[in-house]
Design goal:
globular; Immunoglobulin-like; 5 helices; 7% helix; mainly beta; six-stranded mixed beta sheet
Length: 723
């Protein structure tokens, strides 16, 4: 519950030096000075200096004066202090805690405690700031002056601003699909090395399109002070797929846009969304208003939903979120749903996300754990079963989610409401959740979102946190760019999920004889149906054909390594767009998986790889978003790394000087293996280590894979559908 409010003006004050604005992820030195107030601090009293859960600032350490994040603490009067750092020693969201206890002596009014974060006096480079931007990064000070372990927050807290660094890469975003002759925009931005949109761009780049684009200039200039550019009024006068490249003065491609498919007409159009993230009012960063502005203006999303933990959402904040959703929703431009995260304990069903069709609906919290006002406690739904019962008559949709807690959809599920499961977020990749659904016979689609806490919905770079995954996106295939259109797509499972890219994906089935397509799950009753000869992803059908034609049409921004075709839990086919004769000197080494389903799912993959009788020509890391994680070549035949996975994967590509000679030795804390280079080929070599798909995979690739676009068609056994 909240801290004490007893006489905060008499508990002293604190200031930080230097103050002002500092680059995200940079190393700095700060001196925080706490000056005791009227009560002083009694023997065994203490102060806490706390930071938000979301912050990935370097962890203070006290033992290595010449190493990063070295921190010192002293009392001006010589009192002996006991100092600890704990990532969870205070009330969320301010749970990362530097705890300072007076153990011999006491402080009188005017005495000081001086904390030097990143103390450089003995050679430390400083403390690394958090890797994402924040207008008001606080060094929040709490005081237990009377030694009761009941803390009072100072009325004025020291703070700094964290701003983006210089541009490390550019990004170009277009609509995924467009109608011939209709106007669209190309939106551009630069990002720093930690994924923050940067206003320090000052480049002029050439624009080159793969086909004629009316209205496209030959160059674009980025000006200092601008976070994003939009080139409007563009059009294409013939069907086909389009990409636009940005090139530097030497003709080198700086970035490529996502592919855009231009069509003569279309019934459904793709719209990209991040349906799950939080702001500082709960456990995230920056305000809810900042959250939606970032999604619209810096991530270039079509859809966004704020999903705060319900046990932190006060009635006042819920009203504010509803007001924001109404304000930011603009048909044809940007769609927001009023939403909240039901954050029940795992044993009561685990996390769910609720999206309401309209404002003003009752929130049914999992608890009032951090909400003082208990006047509406009777509206709580403490279990997932209670939640589904409370929502049974609501115009809303629900999807299951994995965060700190995981959704146990075996315990509770409602076909009427729960239309999808979230298989990827910044917390990791969780394909086991859709497998749980298949085992239960549920008809659900998949979504992928950020569940971001760093104030970057739709462009959720993981920074230096332990999660390590880039936030995902969900593409809805909707009949209209409105709330009703998007909600229809979500309910019909007309959507697909990615780990952050904006690929074109069209999956269909064709029937030799008309099949019955249902408007909704026929198990729910009172559904309509029609006879069709073709269906798309998410449709529910009943057909008499023993075989159907299954097709995939995909166009991505990066090479396609493989496509897995599954029938429920069974993998029917693994398709690779290249053949064995195309393989070259490149091998891929991936580590992946997680420890288990709960909070402690992190798997450490620190290790090295070494070649005998061969050497590395070139090395490229994969999914190394956290640049604090090491990846370096220490010899011609040796590479070392630090790595972590939470269900996703990391690794590297290695181009060998000799494609067949010698032995590869992989040595991690979990797996140690020797592999003959000659044995590494088209098919994967897998070394499993328990957990959830915790393993290392090794296989060979072409030296260059040109396949970013492909179509695939197969005749397959039809899937039986129970009515």
């Amino acid at each position: 519950m909240p801290h004490s409010t007893y006489l905060p003006d008499r508990m002293g004050h604190a200031e930080v030096s230097p103050n002002g604005a500092f680059e995200a992820g940079s190393f700095q030195e700060f001196t925080l000075t706490y000056t005791a107030g009227y009560f002083g601090i009694d023997d065994t009293g203490s102060i806490k200096v706390v930071h938000r859960f979301a912050s990935d600032m370097g962890r203070p350490q006290f033992d290595h004066p010449n190493a990063p994040n070295f921190t010192t603490v002293e009392a001006s009067n010589g009192a002996v202090l006991h100092v600890e750092y704990d990532i969870k020693r205070n009330i969320r969201p301010w749970d990362k805690t530097l705890y300072i206890k007076v153990v011999r002596g006491f402080l009188c009014e005017g005495d000081q405690i001086i904390v030097r974060f990143g103390d450089r006096r003995q050679g430390s480079p400083g403390i690394r700031l958090q890797t994402f931007c924040e207008h008001t990064f606080e060094f929040r000070v709490l005081v237990d002056a009377i030694a009761t372990y009941n803390y009072v927050e100072l009325p004025k807290q020291p703070e700094i601003a964290i701003i983006p660094g210089s541009v490390a890469l550019y990004k170009a975003i277009m609509p995924t699909q467009q109608i011939v002759g209709e106007l669209f925009s190309l939106r551009l931005k630069g990002e720093d090395k930690w994924g923050n949109p940067s206003d320090r761009c000052c480049d002029t780049l050439d624009l080159k399109a793969s086909k004629r684009v009316d209205g496209l200039p030959s160059t674009v200039t980025f000006n200092a002070g601008e976070f994003a550019r939009s080139i409007d009024g563009l059009s294409v006068d013939e069907p086909g797929d389009l990409t636009i490249n940005l090139l530097d003065d030497d003709g080198v491609v700086v970035c490529s846009s996502n592919p855009m498919r231009v069509m003569e007409n279309a019934i459904l159009m793709p719209y990209w969304g991040d349906l799950h993230g939080q702001s500082e009012e709960t456990i995230g960063t920056n305000s809810a208003r900042d959250f939606y502005e970032f999604a619209r203006d810096k991530a270039f999303l079509d859809i966004c939903v704020h999903q705060g933990n319900d046990f932190q959402i006060t009635t006042e904040f819920w009203k504010h979120l509803n007001a924001l959703s109404k304000e930011f929703t603009e048909n044809g431009k940007f769609i927001v749903f009023p939403g909240w995260e039901w954050s029940g304990n795992t044993g009561l069903g685990g996390d769910r996300n609720v999206l309401h069709m309209r404002e003003g609906r009752q929130i049914h919290r999992s608890s009032h754990a951090l909400v003082d006002d208990l006047s509406d406690v009777d509206t709580d739904s403490n279990s997932a079963k209670d939640l589904f019962e409370a929502l049974k008559d609501e115009d809303c949709t629900v999807f299951a989610h994995i965060g700190g807690r995981y959704a146990d959809i075996k315990m509770a599920h409602d076909d009427r409401l729960e239309r999808a499961v979230e298989v990827h977020s910044a917390w990791g990749t969780f394909e086991w959740l859709i497998e749980d659904a298949f085992k239960q016979g549920y008809r659900v689609g998949i979504v992928s979102n950020s569940d971001g806490h760093k104030g970057r919905p739709g462009a959720s770079h993981p920074g230096a946190t332990k999660f390590g995954s880039y936030g995902g996106l969900t593409c809805t295939l909707a009949p209209a760019f409105t709330r009703a259109g998007i909600m229809e797509a979500l309910r019909k499972r007309h959507h697909y999920a990615t780990t952050g890219c904006r690929m074109i994906l069209d999956v269909r089935t064709k029937f030799d004889h008309p099949a019955e397509k249902f408007s909704d799950d026929p198990n729910l009753g009172n559904v309509n149906s029609e006879m069709v000869t073709e269906a798309m992803m998410g449709d529910i059908l009943k057909c008499s054909d023993e075989e159907i034609t299954f097709s995939i049409d995909v166009h991505a921004s990066a090479p396609i390594e493989r496509i897995d075709i599954r029938n429920g839990l069974e993998t029917v086919e693994i398709f690779r767009p290249y053949i064995e004769a195309d393989l070259g000197t490149r091998i891929r080494i991936l580590w992946e998986g997680s420890e288990y389903r709960g909070r402690g799912r992190e798997t450490i993959w620190d290790g090295h790889a070494e070649l005998d009788d061969n050497s590395f020509q070139r090395l490229e890391p994969i999914n190394r978003y956290n640049i604090d994680k090491l990846f370096y070549q220490t010899a011609s035949n040796r590479v070392e790394w630090t790595g972590l996975t939470t269900g996703g994967f990391g690794g590297f590509d290695a181009w060998l000087n000799d494609p067949h000679a010698g032995t590869l030795r992989v040595d991690t804390n979990l797996i140690k293996e020797d592999i003959s280079i000659a044995d590494i080929g088209f098919n994967e070599i897998i070394f499993a280590n328990g957990g959830i798909d915790r393993r290392i995979r090794i296989f060979r690739l072409p030296d260059k894979n040109p396949h970013q676009k492909l179509t695939l068609e197969r005749r397959m056994n039809s899937l039986p559908v129970s009515a």
